[in-house]
Write a structure and sequence with these properties.
There is one protein chain. The protein is an alpha+beta fold and about 120 residues long. The chain has a single domain, classed as N-utilization substance G protein NusG, insert domain (mini-chromosome maintenance (MCM) complex, domain 2), CATH 2.60.320. Helices cover about 25% and strands about 35% of the residues. It has 2 helices and 7 strands; from the N terminus they run H-E-E-E-E-E-H-E-E. The chain has a 4-stranded antiparallel β-sheet with strand order 2-1-7-6, with no helix packed on it. The chain is elongated. The termini are far apart. Bound molecules: zinc ion. Zinc ion binds next to helix 2.
Amino acid sequence: MKRSDRITSVIIVAAVTLVVVFWIVMHRTRGTMAVVRVDGKIIATVDLTSHESQTLRITGVLGPLVIVADGKGSIQVMESTCPDQICVHTVPARSPGDQIICVPNHMVITVEGKATGIDALTQ
Ligand SMILES: [Zn+2]
């Protein structure tokens, strides 16, 4: 194998990998709804298919939380009274099964919808 052949195959492998990753990201199923629970009780549902951003102010065990759906299918915690702020720093949830959890506030946001990723293709 010549050096140029090796470089060509590395480029091909890199290109194929890029296409596959891009394809998986693009085909990740989006959630249709986010369910917000505090202490296991549903206190709000948010329509993630809406194109308008929505701001939700809820009360957790410790205090108020501000949850924002961006109108592009993602939902995230913007403000929280919890000491660790893990929920605020959690990446926005958008695919079915994604969760944002605030342990101190006993709050869980779960994205619901069709099955995620590759499994969706076999249906
Ligand atoms: Zn939190």
